[in-house]
Design goal:
about 280 residues; 2 domains; three-stranded antiparallel sheet; about 15% strand
Length: about 280
């Protein structure tokens, strides 16, 4: 079966794998569980074999998938979501996931995990729940339920990675990693702790470096400048207040430490395409 919406692509048919690879692979996060047989994938300069009980995880904007070859008995379950939704989910989880940037780099090098039966059962459960919901013709809450499933799946992935990967406390020790890595990691933590600070200069001063150098480090480590990280974090915080609370717009502007409600509305429209009121109406059940 293959199901597709603007946000989620779900499939377990070998013939639909080509469709995924050609239309969604580059700009999507992808999680694929092999349940039988195997598939050989050319990824990051080498041929990888994903076989039974293997989970293949590909983060957005990683190297494109190259040629592939499936065994005749290959079976799988696959979920992919676009980069915009994936990043929204990740930024929404920043307070509980400070080391996502490190895990993302780890996944680029080590994208395959062998699962135990419990983890396989969890994968099947999430796949089946999302499949059932995607078949539901009732539309009033369908989009919101699918977003909740996507969020739950993302959190489950983070939980799984915590169990599988022993991320050393050296991430927090300047002597154990490069200065640039340490600076980027510290900057990301500062974003979590100070989501209302919106000037690159403020973070650069705290790190005792120039704004230009901070942006260069961010660009090199993540493909995004410091100002892009700040804007995306700010927008994620704004969306949280508009979706999850009933605070008046003026109060959200105050909490977010904007100088006034008018500037807050301009900022929100610039970065979301919608005014705060319109965004809230579209995103609250």
């Amino acid at each position: 079966m293959t199901f597709s919406t603007e946000s989620i692509f779900l499939n377990n048919e070998p013939e639909s794998f080509k469709q995924y690879r050609e239309t969604r692979a580059v700009q999507c996060a992808n999680v694929m569980l092999c349940t039988a047989g195997h598939i050989d994938l050319f990824y990051r300069g080498e041929m990888l074999r994903v076989e039974k009980k293997h989970l293949f995880i590909r983060v957005p904007n990683a190297t494109e998938l190259g040629p592939y070859q499936m065994s005749p008995d290959f079976q799988f379950m696959q979920l992919s979501i676009p980069i915009s939704l994936f990043e929204s989910l990740m930024y929404g989880n920043m307070r509980v996931e400070p080391n996502w940037w490190a895990k993302q780099e780890f996944l680029k090098v080590h994208p395959i995990f062998e699962l135990n039966e419990h983890s396989i059962d969890l994968c099947r459960m999430y796949f089946n729940m999302i499949a059932i919901q995607m078949q539901d013709t009732q539309t009033d809450y369908k989009k919101h339920i699918l977003m909740l499933f996507a969020r739950a799946t993302t959190l489950e992935l983070l939980n799984f990675l915590d169990k599988q990967v022993a991320f050393s406390s050296a991430l927090n020790e300047r002597t154990a990693i490069s200065t640039s890595d340490y600076t980027f990691h510290t900057f990301i933590n500062m974003l979590r702790e100070h989501p209302h600070e919106r000037e690159v200069q403020w973070y650069a001063a705290k790190l005792d470096i120039t704004p230009k150098y901070l942006s260069e480090i961010c660009k090199d480590r993540s493909g995004k400048s410091a100002s892009e990280w700040i804007a995306e974090t700010t927008v994620a915080e704004i969306k949280h207040y508009l979706r999850e609370t009933t605070l008046p717009i003026r109060e959200v502007a105050r909490v977010m430490e904007f100088p006034n409600a008018s500037f807050f509305c301009q900022y929100t429209k610039k970065h979301t395409g919608l005014t705060p009121n319109h965004f809230r109406k579209q995103n609250q059940a």
